[in-house]
Amino acid sequence: MEFLVHNISHSDLIVELSIDLGDGVSVPLSILGRPKFSLFQKTSRQILERVQQLRYPKLRGHTCGRDIDGERWKVRCQDTQSPIGFNLADAPIPIGIAELLRDFQLRGEVETTRLVEQHWDRVGITAVYFPLVALLLPKWMQVLKEFQSKNSRQLIYLISGAGIPRNVEHSRNDNSTEITAQLIALFVHQYYSHMTAIQVHSGSNIFRFDDNVQFMTRELRPLLEAQRETLVDRCGEAWKSHFHVTIAYADGPSARLSALNASLRIYRPSYLHIWQLKTFWHERKLSMVDVDFHSFEKIEASPLVAPSKADAMTQMVVREMRMFRDQFLSAEGEGEVASFWLRKSRKPVLAVLLIEKPATVAGERPTIVVQRGMNCEVSMPTGSLCAERNAIGSALASDPTLTRRALKMIAVLGLNLAADGILNETTSIASEPGPTATLLESVGLETPVQIRPISVQCSSKVEKASIPTAQTVQRSANGTGRGRGRGKRRREKMNVNLVSSRKPKRPRTFSFDKVAAEEMIHGSSPLDRNPLAPCGACKEWLVKVAEANPSFRVVTFENSRCQNVYINQII
């Protein structure tokens, strides 16, 4: 299910005002305008009534009904051919010249306004345009196609409201966008029939933050939560892969947009940002370059990056995590990981803690230590031991002089055990060969990996000279390590953790139907759980670390192949 949430403002509606003066007259025959603040609802209501007459001319009994073609009342942008609004030229809404100059903001210079005042007599509204929605919907469809979600159920929430006018003589509802929301819902129905438009009206006051927060929590969010519960009933734990929210950042009071973003943040929404609002107002055309799509991670200032573009410490912790992952997968099925240590969830989580010990002698370089950890579920009534806390506790046990300032970052990776608990070997390692930490012979999780003292920005040549590659680790594991190499060649197949497809900027969405739900639940391959954020208990530990070391970072991965990472700070 795909959700687009759009706050309707006065920038969402533009009218075309026209007059026919014949040939040879040097005055504009049509001009764009917008109703003034307290005339917005009145004008919108007049337009809605006329649009309904054009839709059903025979039922409405309009005098021009016999001459109206079923498609003539629709209008598209000449450049992009995208739907832009409704054509009312067959039945224009008459407006007096005094009302025109008093109640509308006109597009054009002062000279144009003067010519209109002098030469225009009988004026009418001949078209209505929705420039923001006309941009958002094609861009949204393009994004859904990119994410293979174009067949999903698509719902558009149109949020309307009103504000307290500065003039106390004006009614609070005169500036309301509720009727405009009805017009836009009709626009969606006519041009994008596969989408469902849902109107949500807040009343007043849209300019106050407290009122907006109450509206979002009491009116808007319960509607999304109801859709979410329906999805949970159909898909179970896989509901997140089917539930995506996109917020339209266009125009509106800052209190409104801030409350909207804060209330829906729990859904990790994407964003459609219209950074240029007035292209149609100035040029009478739509420009798709005026709207940008941003993923939640990009808005959160933690975009997906390749390790090669990160700093030296991040590259180091990624290399160590790749090696840890390869060793864990090569040993799968030999011990009691599936039968005892993780018999409940069967969801391994690996953690790598990077520690920088200050030099004991002035002038020497600091020592880098890497500590591994993984989750355990020995007794569920007493709770599980998370990988992050395991790594921190093991590091402290190895070095009681450890300080929080020495903890630089921790990497977290989620894996999946084989369905049958049997070892799945891999014919090749998906990770890139590269330098990593110098290992001790034992690969036990409680023995830290010691790295020779190096600077943070050390050269890659020095690292490659002293560190084994991932291929070396695999040959050791498949050859002489832990009972292998007995002369019997075991059946080989690629490990699912190393062949997970690259996910797009967000999880793939499937159409909301019974077949898709069953495929998701009963699929042969388990879902990749990355990026895997720390749980609540681990987050508390990391927050305490970050209080003394605010530069402490958490590194998570796009998927189990560890080719791209997210880098986040706790504080």
From TrEMBL:
Domain of life per record: Eukaryota
Origin species:
Peronospora destructor
Identification of the protein by name: Uncharacterized protein
UniProt xrefs under InterPro entries = Deaminase_LmjF365940
